[in-house]
Amino acid sequence: MARPSTIDGPYQPKGLSLALETIAAWLLAAIWILPLAYAIWAAFHSPEFSTRFSPFAPLTLENFTRAWDAAPFARYFLNTFMLVTLVLSCQLVLCTLAAYAFARYEFRGQGIAFALVLAQLMIMPDILIVENYRTLGKLGILDSIPAIALPYVASAFGIFLLRQTFKQVPKELDDAARVEGATALQTLLRVYVPLGRPVYLAYALVSVSYHWNNFLWPLIVTNSVEARPLTVGLQVFSSSDQGIDWSVICAATLMTSAPLLVGFVLFQRQFVQSFMRAGIR
Amino acid sequence: MPKSISRRTILRAGATGVSLIAAPSLLRAQEVKELTFYYPIAVGGPVTKLVDTICTDFEKDSGIKVTPVYAGAYPDTFTKAVTAIKGGSGPQFSVLLAADIHAVRDLDLAVSIDEIDNSAETKAWLSGFFPGFMANSLVDGKTWSVPFQRSTSVAFFSKPAFQEVGLDPEQPPQTWDQLIAAAVKLTKKQGDAASRWGVKLASNFGTAQWMFGGLANQAGHTLMNPSGTEAYFDHPKAIEAMNFWRSLAFDYGVTPKGTTEWGTLPTDFMQGAASIIYTTTGNLSNIRQNAKFPFGVMGLPGKEGPRTVVGGGNLYIFKNAKPAEQLAALRFAKWVTAPERAAEWCIKTGYLAVRPDAWETKALKDYVTEVPAAIVAKNQLPVATGELATYENQRVYKVLADNIQACLAGTKSAAVAMKDTQTEADRILKPFKKG
Amino acid sequence: MPRPHRRSTITLEIIAPARERSEKLHSLPATHLMSSPKNEIHAWLLLLPAMSLLVLFTHWPALATLIDSFYSTPKARRPSVFVGAENYQQMLADPVFWQSATNNLLFALGTIPVSIGLALLMAVWVNDRFAGRTLVRMAFFTPTILPMIAVANIWLFFYTPQYGLLEQVRGTFGLAPVNWLGSRDTALGAVTVVAIWKEAGFFMIFYLAALQAISPSLGEAAAIEGASRWHYFRRVQFPLLMPTTLFVLVNAVINAFRMVDHILVLTRGGPDNATTLLLFHVYTVGFSFWDTGYAAAVTVVVLLVLGLLALVQYGVLERRIHYR
In chain C, which residues have their Cβ closer than 8 Å to the Cβ of A110? Predict the structure, then answer.
């Protein structure tokens, strides 16, 4: 299989233009990585060096011990992982089913139903915190990971994207599957879902990144260590009477982001290519 | 006047009635097995673990399991508690800002201690707190909260910087004039670029009103009436206080123009970017640990002499709890503020022990000998005023902070800033003014 | 490996534009028409899980908010009463509302085009081969991994006066000091930069995947015709990236009205409301002031604005992607 990224195209810059582009890319990258670079610096040095950059400052792991002692980060990490997994898997299932209905069925109330879905494109659950809290309280599931996830599970964005995707699947493929005796759900699984892979991937990235970073709603809805995600755990350090202790914040940030960072470094090629491959095969 | 007397009589009658009902629940308090309370953390260090230990010890002592829920910073905790209670669940009690008293009452969340238990024993216990810390608890003759993690505003100063410019570190400034004189010497700058500011005060939303409460007290002015229905920002003394703050930046050039962030002040101090910082007693252990130079703690200089403002959080017991639960929560409040535990809390967190008898314990006496700076804050209590607390206090804080920031940015004069604050505050407080 | 071209084109090109855009797509029917009583039940059964959750967590609470906006905020001594448009009048008279609306507009105008433009530039660069490409890619991707609530504190250090990173750098060049977050002139710009940093790296991933999916044969053909690199980008790559651009745009617009975490850490809306955005105003009024009635009114306005934007975007998306 040809991999465009490994073959130089005619527009691969050479000579001077390559040098210029390399320098420019490196400069921009340097700016972009600055927060991470600073986090690494501050996390491995004692607080007195958190704002002074001296090449021979002694290294220390003390900040990590302090951060680790201050909160059960392993548990928070697990919680965030479970939250993101739960949200994403439910979103994919529900959105696929709904999108399929919109793309391939004609039914009474379709227009209204679709308008109702689109409404959520704008009414973000973030705004409806008080009302949603009340609802979850009535359901009796406050302070749990499903409680953080539920308001986000039916995603208009996902339904909309997948509906677009499914609508572009040609009728012939659908017909062929049916002629072979596949039911509607089987057709969905065999024809539509595989063809929508790049969209699923893109959507997954948006969703994971959003829920990995989400803060306000989990803060309000969780009380216990068993349910609290990382972002809420990190909050312990950020606002206090004592002011900001950058060393500990950075140590905690690094600890919690390290698995993802390492994952990206190791798998970034596969990651980008899986986007691409699904699209061009 | 007769009108208000009759209202008070009715209130008292009501309170007695409630206490009559509450009396049998003394027995029922034994049946309470579990309580939940929310608390904020405003200082670093493993406070969560300390709170967990306190609750475990309480369970051993009383058989009541108390689940402490760390809920973020003060505003987060308030938000969480209100959201939870409005959502129909929520904690039986919580640590919230002492100054949130009127906000809590306005939302009808809290039950007064008098309503829970009107016994002579409880009254005696309540009278054992520092009066300065009770300033934000008493409204309409009732006690609405119990002082717990309390602080005062104090200033930290760098002794080497003082010596460097020929100031006596054992004689820190006591008055505004002395402060200005010292700060002018301490400031090191070329043009607008200061490598070291003489003094820094925080003016971000959330802290500005606290600083300003202290400054107003320094000018001999209180910003509100005790019942929180009126605020006095356009008073000449309030304008004088604002003008003093502004002059530090614009006339004497000893503090930066624009907004200064609370969170960076300790680092400013430890990096030598500011020689004097106005902050809280809660910072003592942090600065003691991390400052690489000898430092001193001083009361905030006033127009005539040191004056400061109290801050920090109190325990509020909520209406939504059952009477027996309220009693159990009160029992916890008594337990946690007992001298030895108040002393331990003080030593481990840097907050002030809230009762004079705690300062008589051996543990705290030893601590004070070891860290003389700790006693400065306690000694400021007689000259401390209550924190700015009105109805809709967050809204009033916001208006005040906006105007302070505008003034420190140079877009408004002190008089205009205070007049604007007053106009807005009057509008906000209008519904609460009685007849 | 043979590539079934038709299948490649039908895959939605939001991420991966087709190698060659098939003309056949234009003639494809938009939908299968399956309309029978049995199918109607099927359709509704498929919709049911998503729809019931939408009603429970979006429509019902939104309706409750709309109703709330016509009532006063309930207080201990004053139960909630119907006040008609009073909350809306209060809003129109509230200078902070107007300030936050203006700020939000500037914030959106700052973040959306710049972050999309930068994302595209980054993607074009890391799509070429050069020394250290993997590291550069990782650098661009870091904002996605670091939670905003934590990273905002790091940005706070960058912007801190005197010894903050920015000031240390400027100091070595002898430039006049700036209180980036503390002065009205620079604060909004400073928080906008943080948002751009956060977004551009994220969007780059989508552009990169889309660029890699463009058939090399198009580049070869263009090269034979002697097209310059700019011309190739402008006439071939950019149009093929259009679906990705729209996808990214939707996200950028939503985020421009949704990001408040960094404001909470960096400025809390200050100085003097210079960085108050609409959702932050809603949050302050609703969760600091507990004025739920007024907060509901502001929320309704935010929803209307976003609704309008959603409609416009929906129209564009439908036209540009579906019927293309």
Answer: 43
